[in-house]
Amino acid sequence: MTKRVPFQNGPMPLNPRRTNIGVDANALDLDGSARDDLVRRFCAMSDAQELIVVVAAGVRNEVQNPKTPSNVQVAVLPQIFNLRPGLTSGQQEERRRLARILQGNADPSTHAADASHLSEAVETGCGYFITHDNRILKKRSELRPVIPPTLQIVSLAEFFQIVDDYDEGHDELV
What is the β-pairing status of strands 80-81 and 126-130? Predict the structure, then answer.
């Protein structure tokens, strides 16, 4: 058995079947590509309670928009979700730090929702935040110093690479 290189140059990822998983609504969009099979696989595993999906309040609010595809609503709305009571000053500062990293040259308010989704993944003890937002995925190394080392920001394909490694018995990932 070949030992894998640690994912994202950090600690070995947590077992996806034993940790909370945060998901961005865009990760579950069906787009007619091969990724649709991964979306269906994720939904099936979630429905079978093989995964502990925790939805950020902001993601839940976005998904309740009538324009959100029905498959995304069906996948997200029944999940455990963060009620998002009033934010503490520490939580507000965390969101500002993440937003500054994600902002780049964009308008300061443009990525506030993304920063909030990531912060809620941190607050709810997620081991994974699954997204298809290219800005978030490209900024992973910049985000690394301000998120816990156990939180992996991944695409759905990367998530299933880790799931499959665990399923294949790569004990060194446990």
Answer: unpaired
Q: Is residue 65 part of a domain?
A: yes
Q: What is the pLDDT of residues 86-121, one digit of tens each?
A: 667 777 777 777 777 777 666 655 567 788 888 888
Q: pLDDT under 50 in the chain at which residues?
A: 1-6, 9, 80, 173-174
Q: Could you tell me the strand order of the sheet in which 152-154 lies? A: 80-81, 52-55, 20-23, 126-130, 152-154
DSSP secondary structure letter of residue 2: P
CATH of the domain at 130: 3.40.50.1010
Q: Which two tokens stand for residue 22?
A: 């945060």
Our count of domains for the chain comes to 1
pTM (2 d.p.): 0.73
CB neighbourhood size of 164 (10 A): 11
